[in-house]
Design brief:
By secondary structure, this protein is mainly α. The longest helix is centred in the middle third of the chain and has 18 residues. Helix 2 runs antiparallel to helix 4. It contains four helices and no strands.
Length: about 80
């Protein structure tokens, strides 16, 4: 009974949050989700954004803009799949 409950909870989380992945998630998709989550966290927390802006010697608006641009394709183009 516990196993059924755990599996249903995992399926619910996977359908609700894309970053949790599933059995068919490839490494590139997982890494892209991790990078996007990190960039979103940095943008959403002003102290982190300030820290990154000081480290890069840029203004916070420019760092925010750069992170938003990186979110489009954080790990480069996806690899070619054999099944396609």
């Amino acid at each position: 009974m516990d196993r059924l409950n755990i599996n249903s909870q995992i399926e619910h989380l996977q359908s609700k949050y894309i970053g949790t992945g599933h059995a068919d998630t490839i490494k590139h998709e997982w890494l892209s989700n991790q990078h996007r989550d990190t960039y979103a966290s940095i943008i959403g927390h002003h102290p982190l954004l300030s820290y990154v802006s000081v480290a890069e010697n840029e203004c916070t608006a420019r760092v925010k803009s750069n992170l938003l641009e990186k979110m489009v394709s954080p790990t480069g183009p996806p690899p070619v799949r054999e099944d396609q």
